[in-house]
Amino acid sequence: MAKRIFGFFLLAITTFTVLLGCCSATVHKVGDSDGWAPKEDDNWTDREEFHVGDSLVFEYDRNFNDVTQVSGGLEYEFCDSSFPKAVYNTGHDVVTLKEPGSYYFITSNHTQCTSGQKLDVLVTHDPSSPIPPPSPSKILPSGNIYKVGDSKRWSVYDSEFYYQWSKEKQFHVGDSLLFEYNNEVNDVFEISGDLEFLYCDPISPVAVHKTGHDLIKLTEPGIHYFISSEPGHCEAGLKLQVVVGPTANVPKLSPLERLTRWLNSFTFNHH
Ligand SMILES: *[C@@H]1O[C@H](CO)[C@@H](O)[C@H](O)[C@H]1NC(C)=O
Ligand SMILES: *[C@@H]1O[C@H](CO)[C@@H](O)[C@H](O)[C@H]1NC(C)=O
Where's the Phytocyanin domain (predicted)? Predict the structure, then answer.
């Protein structure tokens, strides 16, 4: 039986503040002078506050370690780096905390991770900041939510089904995709490229979703790829590619302008 090692060792952190334009952002140097290394807990999480816009600096020997951001507490607890959200490996990594939420960092060097080379931080909006730092989630309009596959949800139909489903729609930054499925037989892997999509390759996903009710916000323009990692499902057509355009700019029209447009539409359609 696997020996459960509770890595209640955390990392000491020194902080200093820099001024970035209008708003102050804190740079947290992970591990003091030792850098990114196993270290005993000194309760820094109780003292430190991490706000949107702050950054973490990781310094370490890149021959033996890296900084692997994982998506959940389980991966963090068990030092599981197989589905990273992001990997940094320059030896001097600056990670900006752009969104509120929990961030989990481990090293993919398993021995080091189980001895406590891991870090979790909770990031919140700075309540004392007079002007909240701009964050994508704040400036994005709350867009449309598209239920993937509509009433058919996320399941195997035929090879064209999700292609047709997405072809008819225009997605914009700020919209969300809702994947609904039975999570005992399916999952949603977001993958990064065309080739992975073509060959149904789930080996290095950008993100993994498994709740059976996953709401995924489209925060970046470009092409986004989603597949099922279940053997055979993606090959059978359970794959979705969406093209996301920039934020929809819906012009705000006055009632009179809307009325005028409406009347014009009649004039032009009426041959
Ligand atoms: C950390 O904080 C907890 C409760 O706040 C306390 O019981 C514990 O002794 C502290 N540990 C250290 C190393 O200061
Ligand atoms: C893990 O880290 C230790 C200590 O730095 C090092 O001796 C070992 O070679 C590393 N393992 C890998 C796989 O890099």
Answer: 26-125, 144-246
> How large is the average pLDDT for residues 38-55?
73
Per-position DSSP letters for 195-216, written without gaps between them:
HHHHTT--SS-SEEE-SSEEEE
Domains of the chain: 24-124 (2.60.40.420), 136-245 (2.60.40.420)
**CB of 102 sitting under 6 A from ligand 2:** no
Can you read off the two tokens belonging to residue 124? 């919140």
Looking at ligand 2, which residue's alpha carbon is closest to its atom 13? 109
User: What's the pTM?
Assistant: 0.47
Give residue-wise pLDDT tens across range 105-137: 999 999 999 999 999 888 888 766 655 445 554
Residue 61 CA, closest ligand 2 atom number: 5
Residues near ligand 1 (Cβ within 6 A): 41-43, 46
| CA distance to 33, 170, 187, 236, per residue, from 221 (Å) | 39, 12, 23, 27
Nearest CA to ligand 1 atom 13: 42
